[in-house]
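Notes taken during the Thursday session

The instructor put the following on the board and asked us to keep it in front of us for the whole hour. The protein is D-lactate dehydrogenase (cytochrome). We were told not to look anything up and to reason only from what is written here. First, the residues (1093 in total):
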Amino acid sequence: MSNAHLSQYPPQNQLHNKSTISANLSSGANTDDDSIALDFDYLAFEREAKVFLGDRIFSDYARRFAYGIDASCYRYIPKLVVWVKNEEEIARLYDLSQKYNIPLTFRASGTSLSGQACSDSVLVVANEFWKNIKIKFKDNANSSKAPTSIVCDCGVIGSDANAALKPYNRKIGPDPATINNALIGGIFSNNSSGMCCGVKQNSYQTIKSIRVILGDLRKTSKSSKNYGDDRGEKIKHNGNAIVLDTSDEARQDESLASFVNAYPHIVKSLLDLREEILADKELCEMIKRKFAIKNTTGYALNALVDFSDIKDILNHIFIGAEGTLGFISRVEYECVQDYAHKACALLFYENLSLASEAVKILARNDSIVSAAEIMDYACLMSASSLDGMPSEISKVKSGNCAILVQLEEDCLEALEKNIATITSALSPIESLFGVKFSFDSAEQESWWKIRKALLPLSASSRPSGSTVITEDICFEIDSFAKGIQNTQELFAKHGYEGIIFGHALSGNVHFIITPLLKDNAEITRFGRFMEDLAKMVASLGGSTKAEHGTGRMVAPFVELEWGEKAYKINQKIKQIFDSRNLINPDVIITNDKNIHLKNLKPAAQGVLEDYLDACMECGFCEKICPSKHLTLTPRQRIALRREIKRLKSLKNKTNSQRRQYEELKKSYKYLGVQTCATCSMCATLCPLEIDTAKIALKLSPKWSKKYGGVSALLASSLSHNISLMTTLARHLTSLSNSLQELLTPQKMQNLTRKFYATIGTPILPMTMPKPNEKKIRGQQWASKFLEDKCENVEYASLASSGISSGGLNGRLNGEVVYFTSCLNRIFAPKSNASSELESNITKIFDRPMQEVFESLCKKANFYLHYPQNIQHLCCGKAYKNHKEQSQNLAKNAYLALREASQNGRVPIVCDHSACSLELLKKIKEFEAQESANGDYLTPLRFYDLPAFVSECLLPHLEIVPLSQAAKQNPPKVALYAPCGTRNLSVKSQKWEESIFSIAKACGADIIHDSQVKCCGFAGNKGFITPELNESALKYFGTNFLKSSNQSPLSHSDYIFDEAKMGFSSSSTCEIGLAQKSGFEWRHIIYLADICAK
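Then, after some discussion, the predicted structure tokens were revealed:
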């Protein structure tokens, strides 16, 4: 896409002014103004950056818009977006920044709420390539000892760091509500705390060493005379970025000693600031007092008070600096105890005033209370629809509130003693339903689910078109009740309805308001509210930002909270490390007193589909999206969709808006639809269960109908003759196998890529399965497998169906209708050529899946048959882009299954998890239609194949361990549960768990990658958009955890190295898995048949 757009955006410093709140503060200025020429040479910047970044620099409008999205209330559209993969690239970007006076903003996961990771210049994303973890032990002891610290690259997800430490009953100190998504770089740079850590175990208290990439710190570096308004003159640079590593293992040229020797003026400047503070007793005492509570307003001034050693000062000064001083590459945290025993209580009170009194009691006992989370009535109502909510929530009345309390200890006896202490201490404060602690981890998890989901849950109920404003203030405990009261009074004064929650033990109050910022009057009202809020918090000695970071939201109020003297110290810190204001300008320090009111996300009332409108772009969904490293994530797809619909709704579009609309609409086909796997995994992490796959599922049929051409014609023809379709597909599979043998799989893939680019034919994977030659006919009973095992069978149920008993003469354990998918009627797994596997295993591996399941049923004494005319049946999923054909096929399958199952008496099983999910949804849909018509029929009993084997066959099978069945030490077994087994609609049926339960029953030594939830093959997309599958599996099997003697930046180990066979439950997924792993994958029933006698 052309870079011409880069010349049409205003430079950030043109937004700097000293206008009053009543000035023009159009919230859509940055979004819609695409016509102002750039003052800085972004085109030259991009041209030079591409030399070392390649295709990881983005200038097209669609991706600049999408990648600029974060969880805050601001919308800035970067001129360029960069995905960096190493420190050298950061250093070279610094040089280009200095050369062209172009600011850089560093972004981690984009979950921050205060606008600190937004940019209208160059957005530098450090996420995908920064995942290594190293656990360190005292004196390099072996890993059986408790670790002392953990070293994490900046892109490590907080929960992944904790997962690495879990075997040792350790964790990192910070525990933000976003820990499942937030990256270490962001957690550190925002000084995020969270539920339990307070100010005792946050980054400031648990940091051990840092690795930071700094810009040019030479004395000769020209600085801005008008700090905050100018970025200085252009100067030439030749690699002046600096690596500072304060760890014990630092290289000589990157060590603290080297830094002190090379930049004594920086050291002196910091120590001079320390002396300036210590000389002012009043200022010194204020800093100590304000950091005794949570405070992320401004820089970490306490680093200059608490420490005299320059190493300690440098370790701490970057904490909470929000990427305005340098790039945090790596962090070493001291490990903290993760207690083995936990107890939680959900306490309900009449009102917030009584709850505040309870908070004071809990705070006085903070040595034994790890968390106390307060939630007002509106919070409780927003969470009332979640699964597993306590019954008390249905009984609360308006004005009631709750506190979630957690205690934890290593010793159960000590925990019970603490519970008694807290219960007694709280007894003077009357609670609505008593004080009851729970030891049940599932119940505790459900309660914490309320608290962690409050932000998106509350945002979901906002008026259409409103903006989610999340504030984060803190008071000393004695002022906590007064602070909450004053906040509520401000709501009333300015006409807002807000919800209140927070970390009560720390005096930390969060609240959410959802103003309709559609015009200047509304923005002015919001601005006055923010001014009053800042003044109120300051009057009580509190923090206007406790843990979310200063960002842009309260940057104009830093001086108001801290006073002139302390504010000047903040300015000097910025000046020391970024004299030209090129690193994340306008964050923390700004001269623009209205920066918090500019570039707010524009109101887009009523333009988005209802199921998407609730999205507040929090980013919880992104972690497991299979296209996150390729194109867009779910929240980015929603944001682009929202913007497209908003632009479309404008009646009098400017030329700029018209261009934006056309470009976004054109780009969305590939970015938003073709590369969406439609796996619905995003809904499993979204607190609102928003399924972004619905966008692609809605748009694909429209585009197929409009642009389908031959594809639409073929779909219509072949849907009427599934038998012909499967026959043709088998012949094509056979032909592709022959061609691969003749030309090599790699050459065939390259050749078919060229054909796809010109005529749209499928791309041939290198791991194509072989054709399935098994002939299957409807009502073909597996009697030949059962004759020798069954005696004295009672035929009553079979005779009533008109089915011949064949030669059976024994009592059966059960019956099953086998709906074998058209995909598994086409494909059969290739022979496993590994010499390490015994012949009895390879013999089973060579059989079609249908024969393997028939064999299992024989061994379990289960009577199996196929639906009549199975060769003509299909669930319809293959035709999902052609609605009419898909619906007709699904209906035919449903009617055939109802007949074959004798109206629901006999259970039904399907052998492809994606098809199973599709069939199950369609069965429920058709049954609901029949019920609505007054035709109540017995619901069909439907299973995914592994679930049926686990639940129904395993109890009747004699299983021998794989080591015995293999007649030698077998290789480790790789497992993968496809996304179809993880769908929310089948969670209660445990489809995913059944795959693992079968492998465990077989005594397999299991290896699996818990990070990859969808392989991205996505049915036919593996053949037409193979880059989605490749991207989704890019890190499949990668172990980012290093041993204590490895470098954190060394190449990661591959966890599947010891595996020679893999098992799943989706033949199409298995194609992609085989290509990635280098060994064949099969359905899990092959493993079951190996081990079943």
